[in-house]
Amino acid sequence: MTRSLFQLLAGSAAVAVGLASSAAAQDQAAQAQFEAPVLVQAGGEVIDMSSQIGYAGPALYDANGDGLLDLYVGCFRGKILFAPNTGSRAEPVFGKPHYLQAEGKEIEISNW
Amino acid sequence: MDFLTGSFDGRPYWARATKDGYATPVMLNNGAGKELILGMWWDYDGGQWMDMEKPHGLSVAVVDWDADGDFDLVQGTSKGGLYLCSNEGTAQKPAFAEQGTPLKLEIPSGYAMPTVADWNGDGLFDLICGSDSGAIYLLQNQGSAGKPKFGAPQVLLAAHAGQPGTGPGTDTQVAVGDLNGDGLPDLMVGDQNSRRDVSHLTDAEQAQAEEVQQELAGMAEIIQAYYGDDEEAKSALDPKQVERLQELLQLQSRLSGKYIRSAHVWMYLQKAPKEPVVGLGRD
């Protein structure tokens, strides 16, 4: 009985330490610090979706499996801009962008 | 790789990858074969918004919520709510729930635009959300694999307070990835920016613009009658007041500056923490 109780208490202590550690980690994660924002370019020009009614919506995915995250940008008009990452692991550089196509036509998700 | 996208009309759309690129995106259906709609939606046939009292689902993120091997959906709404739409089918044959389940999590300024990533490196997915104010929120997963449980939204990145054009505006959307190979997740933040640029106006013109605004503010009843549907109230207006109102509106138009809209993408690289990350398994 005594032994069981000790194990239970030891287990509780371990859980408590784990929780404290996890809480500290989560506090730290929420306090992330960032470098100053950098206006992203693609193909040497600033990405600006205002001609597509704005609301730039980025997504990152390694489309060609080269280990670099490529950039997709949605917009209110429903088009999706794709800019391949032609840089390196340490420094992303986004190359000439184009709008994604489906079955030979530019994708345009209906929005309203 | 297929992709899913939210839309302003309230429906998620699915573009299936093909050997030639993508198939034409289609509205995503639920398990009953009907359009997957969270709440308010645009009726293309009737030409009007429907179910306007319900939340307006705008965005969608894809994640295996319950660790059952298929993807589920997390949807964000214009009022800031987050909803789970469970996949009750399989990875090969998804069957999404007919009704989204509210997660009882609210992005304070509304316009919840979630994405999914393991932000704190604990092996569980977290939610990172753009918002109407421009702030980016982190909702950390305090549950376990297959049983996610989220804490209250924490501000990961405050709304940009600098000069216009030096950081994101409002209505932010966010993507997460390690962009510089340092092992820490970074942010890509998309935005929407609408403002009036009056920098080309002289000091005298800017002062006049303020006077015009003040005088117009004092003419609220006249403006209401002038633009309203009440013909009797409109005909009762003093012609001199109408003439002055028209004059002021012309001045306001001339002195209001250039309308500038932009929608950019901003990269935020995360700095290395000063203290080692506590209790996490990040490489």
Task: Please characterize this protein's 3D structure.
The complex is a heterodimer of chains A (112) and B (283). In chain A, the strands form 3 sheets. A 4-stranded antiparallel beta sheet of chain A has the order 4-5-6-7, with no helix packed on it. A two-stranded antiparallel ribbon of chain A has the order 2-3. In chain A, strands 8-9 form a two-stranded antiparallel sheet. Chain A is an alpha+beta fold. In chain A, strand 5 (70-74) and strand 6 form a beta hairpin. Chain A has one domain (3-106). Chain A is globular and about 55 Å long. The longest helix of chain A is centred in the N-terminal third of the chain and has 29 residues, at 2-30. Chain A contains 1 helix and 9 strands, in the order αβββββββββ. By secondary structure, chain B is α+β, with helices and mostly antiparallel strands. In chain B, the strands form 6 sheets. In chain B, strands 8-9-10-11 form a 4-stranded antiparallel beta sheet, with no helix packed on it. In chain B, strands 12-13-14-15 form a 4-stranded antiparallel beta sheet, with no helix packed on it. In chain B, a hairpin with a 4-residue loop joins strand 6 and strand 7 (48-50). In chain B, helix 1 (203-217) packs across helix 4 (239-255). The radius of gyration of chain B is 24 Å and the shape is globular. The mean pLDDT of chain B is 92. The interface between A and B is large, with 56 and 71 residues.
